[in-house]
Write a structure and sequence with these properties.
- The chain has 411 residues and is α/β, with parallel strands linked by helices.
- It has a domain of 280 residues: Rossmann fold (3-Layer(aba) Sandwich).
- Helices cover 27% and strands 10% of the residues.
- It has eight helices and nine strands.
- The chain has a seven-stranded parallel sheet, with helices on both faces. Strands 8-9 form a two-stranded antiparallel ribbon.
- Helix 2 packs parallel to helix 5 and helix 5 packs across helix 6.
- The longest helix has 34 residues.
- It is elongated, with a radius of gyration of 34 Å.
- It starts with 60 loop residues before the first helix and ends in a 13-residue tail after the last helix.
- GO terms for molecular function: serine-type endopeptidase activity.
- Its main location: membrane.
- Pfam families: Peptidase_S8.
């Protein structure tokens, strides 16, 4: 059993498959505020997570703050697949039923294809990203028509520095990319290792957007860069509260790109139809909100590269007074503006910018053409008459007799 601290303040234990070792594998996922009980040995039939309580009676503050429905007139995330590399995702909760694809499990439950969530973390993340409407509860995901591709690498939300974990996460990222993920959500933190960075670079080269939690710090712990969020090209997400202020446990740093709700979180439970409350929140849930918005952007602008998507998300965020800082990056993500804004300049328009508008048809066009011709003919006739008037006057005076040429003077 190997434990150690990580920047996000969580612990996970690695599972080797031997019964004498614990079943825990864990990457710092980040992030739940409550300590979860370790799963039973692999020989026992797993009960995939804990049941939750009653659903919310009003929309959570995060949904009211972000108002994703304002962007749903353009897109709801249809056709986009978001890989959730986490603790697994329940496929039976009403919010997620029919939205969860068969995935993979790198933590000992391969036969369940990533659809068993013993910790309850990945299911909440997936519900935030793609929970569907019409379940009888005022709750939905940011992109309710996106699909979830679960890849299970975590068995709990405790923290560890297991040397095997970065390699497992790297395998999960590559597997997700090779199975047609458009966005990869990494609500976890682990060690900085070359194989992990290589997997991130592989995803970016394949035009896959990568979103990661900026990490959570423990009390009296100094901010340290969190990986994979701190890698170039990854959209690193910090947490804010209902007033828009930076959550104190959210790691700050120059690598932070954007922020989203990360406190007082609620989401679907992995077992049954109930909901779990996470009052301590965490940047893992903030990352899920940004992944949902990234899914909306990919659906509305499929031609954009990961760099373009990151630029769009950060430049349309609700900026802090100083424009950008180490706590919230460019500010709180804004779904409507991210989907609808036209970015760029007149001489260098962004990909997908609107074409020049086509002038509307003129219903009186033919009448106008006739009027122009009548006016032209009338002007011509008037000119002829004016020119003929002196001739007519002289003709009347002579009685219409031809004039005679005067005799030439003598030389």
């Amino acid at each position: 059993m190997r434990d150690s601290l990580r920047p996000d303040g969580t612990t996970l234990r690695a599972r080797t498959g031997h019964r004498s070792r614990s079943v825990l594998c864990g990457a710092a996922a980040a992030l739940l505020g409550t300590l979860l009980v370790a799963p039973p040995p692999a020989s026992a039939a797993p009960k995939c997570g804990r049941p939750g309580g009653p659903g919310p009676t009003e929309a959570p503050w995060a949904l009211r703050r972000l108002d994703p429905s304002s962007a749903w007139r353009i897109t709801r995330g249809e056709g986009v697949t978001v890989a959730v590399v986490d603790s697994g995702v329940s496929s039976t909760h009403p919010l997620l039923k029919g939205r969860v694809l068969a995935g993979d499990d790198l933590n000992g439950l391969a036969q369940l294809r990533g659809q068993c969530d013993l910790a309850g973390h990945g299911t909440i993340v997936a519900g935030i990203i793609a929970g569907q409407e019409g379940t009888g509860t005022p709750y939905s995901g940011i992109a309710p028509e996106a699909r979830i591709l679960p890849v299970r690498v975590l068995a709990s939300t405790e923290r560890t520095t297991d040397e095997a974990l970065p390699g497992e996460i790297a395998k999960a990222i590559r597997w997700a990319v090779d199975h047609d993920a458009d966005v990869v959500n990494l609500s976890l933190v682990t060690l900085d290792r070359p194989e992990l960075k290589d997997a991130i670079d592989y995803a970016l080269r394949k035009r896959v957007v990568v979103v990661a939690a900026a990490g959570n710090r423990q009390e009296n712990q100094q901010d340290q860069p969190a990986y994979p969020a701190a890698y170039p090209g990854v959209i690193a997400v910090a947490g804010v509260d209902a007033q828009g202020g930076h959550v104190g446990t959210s790691v700050a740093g120059d690598y932070v790109d954007i922020a989203a709700p990360g406190l007082d979180i609620v989401g679907p439970a992995p077992q049954g139809a109930g909901y779990l409350a996470e009052p301590q929140g965490g940047t893992s849930f903030a990352a899920a909100y940004v992944s949902g918005v990234a899914a909306l952007v990919r659906a509305a602008h499929p031609e954009l590269t990961p760099t373009d998507v990151a630029f769009r998300l950060t430049r349309t965020a609700d900026n802090p007074p100083d424009g950008r800082n180490a706590e919230v990056g460019y500010g709180v993500v804004n779904p409507y503006r991210a989907v609808t804004s036209l970015l760029g300049t007149r001489t260098d328009p962004p990909p997908g910018a609107m074409a020049e508008p086509v002038p509307p048809a003129d219903p009186l066009a033919w009448q106008r053409a006739v009027a122009v011709w009548v006016a032209a003919v009338g002007a011509l006739l008037a000119g002829v008459l004016l020119a003929a008037r002196p001739v007519l006057t002289l003709g009347r005076r002579r009685g219409w007799r031809p004039g005679r040429r005067s005799a030439a003077p003598d030389a």
